[in-house]
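Question:
Write out your own:
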Amino acid sequence: MGRLRNALGIRLIDVGATLAVVTVVELNVATAGGPGATPLNPLAYVLGGILALPVLFRRKWPLQVLLACTVLLFVYYSAGYRRNISPAPLLSLPLYDAALAGYLAVAIVIPAVYMTIGLFVVGATTHPKPIDLVNDFLPSVVVLALAIMLGDTVRSRRALAAETADRLRLAEEEREAETARRLAEERLRIARELHDTVAHSMATITVQAGSALHLPAGD
């Protein structure tokens, strides 16, 4: 079981996050309604809980999790179950993960399409006042936008931290290379001086020995 969980990239924090999303979605299901929605029943709760199951795999497949939640939510809306539930409780965490993984364009397009369709459907079916429509949709828009911005900000900071670490590593490598170069030059200088000293000493010894050979035997 542990190997399967590791293979799927499921962490304990992902299990907790999934349970939290399920809880919020179920609360939304219990309190939402909408024109033409079917009466609240156990099936609505079961399907609402299923919506959040892809969140378990958020670590390994962030983009696929976002797409899966998007499709499941669309099916849930199409089936007529609690059409007025906000997409924010379900999509906020997948949007954050997708933006964090670098899929910023997809993370922006999906909620934009959902909110646009929602505005059109609600406006066409209930004919609310514009201010009421804004009040209904603004919290969800803000939550979804914050999730995307937070994910992109964290990604940017991590990229900056990684770049800074690389620069520090390169600077350290250059410093070590410069130290090694200076050490090699110092060793070469010492070797040259030692060679010159030895050569001079040998030449002196040779000259003195040669001179001694030419001295008279008595001297």
Q: What stands out?
A: The chain has a mean pLDDT of 84. The helical segments are 2-7, 12-31, 42-51, 62-78, 88-100, 104-126, 130-213. The CA atoms of residues 72 and 114 lie 13 Å apart. The first helix runs from residue 2 to 7.
